[in-house]
Amino acid sequence: SLTDSPVTLKILQSWAPRVLHYFDKEHYTYAGHQIVIQESIEHFGAVVWPGALALSQYLESNQEQFNLKDKKVLEIGAGTGLVSIVACILGAYVTATDLPEVLENLSYNISKNTQNMNIHKPEVRKLVWGEGLNEDFPLSTYHYDFILASDVVYHHAALEPLLATMVYFCKPGTVLLWANKFRFTADYEFLEKLGNIFNTRILAEFPESDVKLLKVTVREN
Q1: Residue 207 maps to a domain
Q2: Contact present, 76 and 176 (Cβ < 8 Å)
Q3: Which terms are listed as keywords in the entry (predicted)?
C-alpha cells in the first residue's frame, strides 16, 4: 500500500473445536494444516502467547508480500514452536531456537507437526540471547532471509541481550518480523531503541489483544 499506516486486525479463532479437549493440547489450523501444540506449565516458553497467533495468522495471509518458500528463517524465542511450524508449512528452511529448558517441548511439537510432510526439515537449536552467537551461528555460514520473533519482550531483564541478538542476525537483506503485546513502558522503550538502530514499521495492530506486528530492517546508508 502507498500509506504506511498499519492495518487493524483481529486474532481469529484459528483453533479447531474438539469434542475431546485435553488441558495441555491446543489445536490450530493454519495454511490448511491442523497443528497440535503441547503446552507445558513449567516455562514461559511453553504456552502459546497472542503474538505467536498474530504472527502465524499474518504470515499465512501475506504470503505474496512475505514469501517464505525456500527462504532461510530463524525464529528466536520459539517457545512452543507454533510460528516455526507455520513457517515450515509455508515452505521455509526453518531454524527454531530457544533456551535449553524449552527445547524438549519445542522439538516435540515441531517434529510431531512436520513429520511425513513434503517440506524442508526444520532444525531446533539452543540460542541464549546475546551469548555465544559468534561461536554457534558464525556470520560466515549463517545468513537468514527472515528473523521471526513473537512475545519476546516480557522478561525485562533480558532486553539488552535480546536487542544484541536482533542486531547480530538482522543484516542487509534480512527482514525481522516481530509481534508482541505492548503493555508496559519497557515494551515501548524497547521499540524506541530498536527504532534508533533499524528501520521499523508497524505492519499490523491487533487492538483487542494489545498486539503490534512490526517489520524491522537494516538502514541502508
Answers
A1: yes
A2: no
A3: Methyltransferase, S-adenosyl-L-methionine, Transferase
Count CB atoms within 10 A of the CB of residue 18.
Answer: 11
Q: With respect to residue 2, please indicate whether it lies within any of the assigned structural domains.
A: no
Contact 52, 45 (CB under 8 A): no
What is the structure's pLDDT at 3?
55
Q: Is 47 exposed, middle or buried (0-12, 13-18, 19+ CB in 10 A)?
A: middle
Residue 196: other Cβ atoms inside 10 A: 8
What the block records as the C-alpha cell of 100 is 535449553
**Would strands 198-206 and 146-150 be described as parallel, antiparallel, or unpaired?**
unpaired
CA angle 63–2–208, rounded 5-degree value:
65
For residues 75, 81, 84, 86, the Cα torsion angle rounded to the nearest 10 degrees is -150
Question: Residue 103: which CATH number?
Answer: 3.40.50.150
Q: What is the tally of structural domains in the chain? A: 1
Bridge partners for 8 per DSSP: 205
Contact (CB, 8 A) for 74 and 98: no
